[in-house]
Structures are given as C-alpha cells and as structure tokens.
Amino acid sequence: MGGVYMSAKDEKVYRLCHEVILGKLSIGELSLLIEKSYRQSRRIVKKVRENGMLGVRHGNFGNRPHNKTSSEIEEDIRLLLKQDYYDFNLTHFGEMLIEKEGINVGKNIIHRIAKLHGLVKNARRRASKRIHKPRARLPNEGMLVQFDGSVHGWFGDVVCDLIGGLDDATGKILALEFFHGETSLHCMKVMKEITVNYGVPSMYYLDGAGYFGKVDRDTETQIGRALEQLGSAVTIASSSQAKGKIERLWQTLQDRLIAELRFYQIHTLEEANKFLKEEFIPKFNAQFAVAPREKESHFKQTTHENLDTIFCKKTKRKIGQGNNFSFGAETYILKTKQNLKHRSININTHIDGTRSFDVCGRLMDVVKASDNHITLNTASTKKAA
To answer: What is the tally of structural domains in the chain?
Structure first.
C-alpha cells in the first residue's frame, strides 16, 4: 500500500490549510504563517481542498529537471579533472572544458563534482603580509610598462626564466619569452620586441636588479643606456609590492601557464616560446586585458633605423693611428678611407653572439689586423629593424 511522504514543512502547510478550510484561519493569516503571498496561499488551499495532502507538493515533484546534467556528462567531467586536467584550477578547467572538450556546464556543477570526488586543487598558501592598497591604473596605454623576470620550475624540474612586460593601463601582456638566465641581453631582446610591436613607452618600471637603470650615479647599465637612447624614462621599484601588477601576473602564470604547458606536452623553450606568442598571450589578453581610461596611446614610434645597435651590449674603444683599435686581445682595423683617429667606436655584442661595430651609430666594416683580407662584420650584417 502506497503512502505520501511529507517533510515537516509540508505537514505544517497542510495542517494550516486544513484550518483555513474549517474556518479557523483566514487566507491572510495563512499567508503570514507560511511566508507566501495572499494569491499563492489561496491557490495552495484550493489544491489541498481538491487533492488533500498532495496539494502541498510542488507540481514538478518527482520529475527530473530538464536542465539537470546527465550522469554520463558528470562522469566525463570527473575523469577529465582527475586525469587530463588534474593541475588546473576549477575556473581554468571550466574554460578548457568549453574550448577543448565541447562541454558547457555551470561553474557550480564543476565545483560540486570536484568537491564530491576530492578533486579540488589546493590553493597555494601564502604567509600573511602587510596589506598594500593597490595603485590605480594609469589612464593611457604606453604610459608605463612594468617589466620583470620570474625564475621558476616552469617545466616541472626544469628551472628557467620567464621575462616579460605588462602595460599598466590595460593589463595587456606586451611580450613574454623563456630564457636560461635573466641577463641584460635577454631583457633587451624582450624590450626590442615590445618596441617593434607597440613602440617606445613613456616609462619602464623595473626592479632593483643591478642590470637595470643605473648601478650608481656614474655607472650606467646597458639597459639604462638603451632606454635612454630610445627616449624612454626608467623608474626603479623599491619593493616587489611597488610593481604589484606584474608580480600578480607571475602568480597567475605559475598557475595557468604551467598547467597548459603540461597539458599540451610542451617541454622545450623553443616550443614554449612559440606557444606563448601564437596562442597563450593572444588568448590571455582577450580574456583579462581591459580598455584604457583614455584612448590616446603614449607608445611612440622610434626614429632609429637599426634597433640592433641599441639593444645590445656596447663596449667603447678609442680609435688609434691607422684607424685601428684593440678588443679582446686582438687588434682590428677599420676599412674606411676616413681618418677616425681619437674617435670612439662601439663594439656591439648581440643576443645571438655576433658582433657589429659602429661609430656614432654608423656601422663600420672591420677586419682583424692579423688577417686583414677577411671582413668580420659589415654594415649590411645588421639590417634595420
């Protein structure tokens, strides 16, 4: 024999409705006691009068909701989160479900499944620190570029450096590249990419590393010299909190980028740098970058025809008698009819290990004195950027 199973709340509603039917309560008093509107209360009393105890049940009771996630999809989500996406945070996992797996479910469903099966990724625990009020974004794109590097185990046990720049006004990643070592030449390679793709920003915001800015009042670093040549000012941050936007970027990348590099089975710097430029950075900027408050861009196009003679390591030498100079225990001769005695020549060491030579920005042909029939570098070796 079947029965009607009712909750304590349903029993209360049924009992009060029965009292209304018997004339012991009014509809208004019922609506107050069951916290329903007058019209709802009247409908419930009518259903109880017609159907008895079943009148207090919702019309959909016992029916499967049309938008309920099927058990098959829930099992797919569980397996994907456990196997392929085990190191993704749940928000990132939800994005990848739509993009790669064609599964579009609400975030609450993902959280419920992950929590039910113990698959919630543990958040990184950080020691409590003094709270710093975030600085407001500057209004114009190109007004300030925060630039830094992060050494980390980006490929599991493989520790390397990720160097990049972030626009302060928009939060847009301007350039990122992996290197073995955070050197001046590596930093300048990324800065050159920003200059080529966007222009020269009004200011770079750098940390206090010795190869940034000025080491002291009289000693200028290679990066400080290059940015001064381009007309970009330099500000040195006094603490990591001062450049909080790019510090937070590293935290985000250590969460999202590491997971994607593993997911796509990317294990080399060459593959990773290609992935950054072609896929990760465009997708990241489309999702997280914001529009600047002011439309006018402060990026300026450079008038320098050859950026390779700026973004390089420069060493100066004096030109002596017969247009010769010494460098690295070798004597070199300039192949020019012009007498450049007492002038300074720049020996430019580039990121790829090659060298070029210039006098006041004009590239020169140079040969070793010991083998002066072989041209080492010509003005055509470094084409205009």
So the answer is: 4
CA 359 to chain centre: 40
In a domain, 259, yes or no: yes
- Is 183 inside a domain boundary? yes
Instruction: Count CB-CB contacts under 10 A for residue 2.
Output: 4
C-alpha distance from residue 108 to each of 68, 171, 296 (Å): 12, 28, 41
Q: Does one domain contain both 252 and 225?
A: yes
Model pLDDT for residues 59-110, shown as the tens digit of each residue? 555 555 555 667 788 888 888 888 888 888 888 888 888 888 888 888 888 8
Question: Model pTM?
Answer: 0.69
Residue 298 lies in a domain: no
Same domain, 262 and 361: no
* CA pair distance 179, 162, nearest whole angstrom: 6
Residue 257 structure tokens: 């980028």
Q: Using CA atoms, how far apart are residues 35 and 59, in angstroms rounded to an integer?
A: 19
Domain that holds residue 90: 71-116
d(Cα 190, Cα 195) in Å, to the nearest integer? 9
Whether 226 is in a domain gets the answer yes
> pLDDT at residue 209 above 80?
no
State the burial class of residue 363 (Cβ atoms within 10 Å of its Cβ: 0-12, 13-18, 19+).
buried
Which tens digit of pLDDT belongs to each residue from 279-323? Answer: 999 999 999 999 999 999 999 999 888 899 899 999 999 999 889
Separation CA 110–CA 93 (nearest Å) = 9
- The pLDDT confidence band at residue 272, using thresholds 50, 70 and 90, is very high
Are residues 89 and 195 both part of a single domain? no
Are residue 51 and residue 76 in the same domain, yes or no?
A: no
pLDDT band at 213 (very low <50, low <70, confident <90, very high): very low
> Is 70 exposed, middle or buried, given 0-12, 13-18 or 19+ CB atoms closer than 10 A?
exposed
How far apart CA 255 and CA 274 sit, in angstroms, is: 19
Give the whole-angstrom CA distance, residue 311 versus residue 188: 5
